[in-house]
Structures are given as C-alpha cells and as structure tokens.
Amino acid sequence: MTTQPDNRDKPLVVIGIGGNSLITDSEHMSVVDQYRAAGETAAHIAPIVNGGRRVVVTHGNGPQVGFILLRSELAKEALHQVPLANCVADTQGSIGMQIAQSLQNEFLSQGRAQQVVAIVTQVVVDPEDPSFDNPTKPIGPFMSESEARQHAEDDGWAIAEDANRGWRRVVPSPTPIEIIELPAIRTLLDSGALVVAAGGGGIPVIYKPDGSLRPRPAVIDKDAASCLLARELGAKVLVFSTDVDKVALNFGTPEEIQIERLNTAECRKYLDEGHFATGSMRPKIEAAIAFLEAGGEEVIITQPHHLGGAIHGTHGTHIVP
C-alpha cells in the first residue's frame, strides 16, 4: 500500500482514547470484545482524517496491564514473572495492533489507501522524580494483606490498601520528560501515516550516565504523556476520548452541571475547589492546562462516538486558553 503525499501543512490532532474505547463494561473484556470496541472507535476517528487532518492516537492500557500481571501471578510457579516495563511494552504492541488494524480496515472499507503504524514508545523520566520515593499508583490484582506483605518481602514491592477493597501493588507515576521515538513519529506523520504511539503513557525509561537507556518499574499517566507528545509535535488540538460526554461540576450529584466551554483560569479554579477526581478527570484537566499554556489552541473532552462532532464544535467540552 502506498503512503499519502506530503501533508505537513495539514492541522495535527492528537487523540487520547481511554479504556472505554477498548473495554466498554465488565461483561465485555475479552480480546474479541476489545477488538470489536477498537473497530467502533476507529469508525469515529476515520472521518477526522478524511476531513483533512493528520492524526496521532494514544491509548490507555490499565486493565490490560492488570490482566498480564494477574496471569503472571497465577503462573509464577511455572514461569518467570513479567517486569512492569515489559507489561507496558506488551500492551503497546497488542493494543496498538488492534487499533491500527481496525483503522486500516475502516479506511479500506471506504476505498481509501491510508497507512496506519503503531510504534512502541519509550518515555524518559527523571530518576530523581519524587514519585519514586512515594509510589501511589495501584496496579495489578487485589490481594489479601498477607499475600501483599509476602510480595513486599520477596519481590520488593511497595504495597497499599486500595479504598478498602483489598491490597495492591503500588508503583511510581513520574512526570514524562522526553519521548525517545519522537523523530520517528514525525517522519511517519510527514509520510502521510496515521500513527498510534505512547500507549499507556509510554514505557518509562531513564538515562544512565553513559547515555544508555534503562527501564524503570513505573506507570506514566497517559494524559500527561499525550500532552507531552502533542506539545512536541506542535499539535493545535488535543482530544481526550473518555466515558462522559462533557466535563461536569459536582459530578454524580443532584447538582451536577455539564460544561461546554472552559478556559484555563476556570480550570484552575475548579481544580482548587476539588471538582475533579484524581483517578478520573483531574489528570485530563491538568494536561489540558499544560498543553494550552505551551501554545496549544484547544482541548476537547468527550465520548468516542462524539469525536467527529466534537472536532466540529457540536459535542463535548472545549477548553481554550
């Protein structure tokens, strides 16, 4: 299949798709279910490309990393356990394949020759990032306290109780600094390809004194990594596809108010007032502020099936400087 002509003058959109773009609910979590969901999301991304925009897709991987860790735990008597960095790399490959193939098939059904490339992405973090001394990001399966403490003793895991639901491994969540494959991503975009990159926030790596790279057991926030990628590529628009149509104040209460338009000052105000939960909307709002203050023009937050309308201003929450 041939690539598209040089299209560097086309506006660039980075679309970060969340877990609901692959796992819609607890009854549909198999690989086949995820593949089907990826196909549905692809159908909503393709019109954005057909409308004359370059697109980079990023994605979450939380549930899928959890599956790998659980399999590793169940098989530990027969096989070595899987390091966290490898879990992220594995999911970048498998989820990237699902998204890329679904997009390519969608374009094929429209009679369009569009190259789609998924790239395994390493993201540099600071080895002195404070999160390494205070890991708080829960990953993997729930355990009893005795199991968790055994892992802490045998494997050196940091452990914590997770919202009274059980004990889990906790890992650092450092700030992303640099995307190693950025030049390759730029080259692919310039060739006309649609690129899937920085899955799950990227594989956390550090520089050694000699300039070589080493993985670190951590999880980078996918929204922060999407923001960094969008900024480095000079994207004008950053989109977060999630499980709500709009950002809301007083979410989940009788006083809930959905918002169609925000600016960065209002975002900071609502963050200070505690409207956005740490494990939900807060990372997206923080990433939106960082992207816009670095020169981005707009951040959009909406559901997958509203992506096309959101790009044209008819759906979602639109955040501007």
Labels describing this entry:
321 residues, Carbamate kinase
Order of helices and strands: EHEHHEEEHEEEHEEEHEEEEHHEHE
What is the averaged pLDDT score? 92
Which value, in Å, is the CA radius of gyration? Answer: 20 Å
> What multimeric state do the chains show?
single chain
Q: What is the CATH topology assignment?
A: Carbamate kinase
Enumerate the spans where pLDDT stays under 50 for 5 or more consecutive residues: none
Look at the helices and sheets and give the structural class: alpha/beta
The end-to-end span amounts to: 40 Å
CATH class category name: Alpha Beta
Question: How many strand units?
Answer: 17
Task: Count up the domains.
Answer: 1
Can you describe what's shown?
This protein is α/β, with parallel strands linked by helices and about 325 residues long. The chain has a single domain (about 10-135, about 170-315), classed as Acetylglutamate kinase-like (Carbamate kinase). It has helices at about 30-50, 60-75, 85-110, 145-155, 180-190, 220-235, 265-270, 280-295, 305-310; strands at about 10-15, 55-60, 115-120, 120-125, 135-145, 160, 165-170, 180, 195, 205, 215, 235-240, 245-250, 255-260, 260-265, 300, 315-320. The strands form four sheets. An eight-stranded mixed sheet has the order 3-9-2-1-12-16-17-15, sandwiched between helices. Strand 6 and strand 7 form a beta hairpin. Helix 1 (about 30-50) packs across helix 3 (about 85-110), helix 2 (about 60-75) packs across helix 3 and helix 7 packs antiparallel against helix 8 (about 280-295). The radius of gyration is 20 Å and the shape is globular.
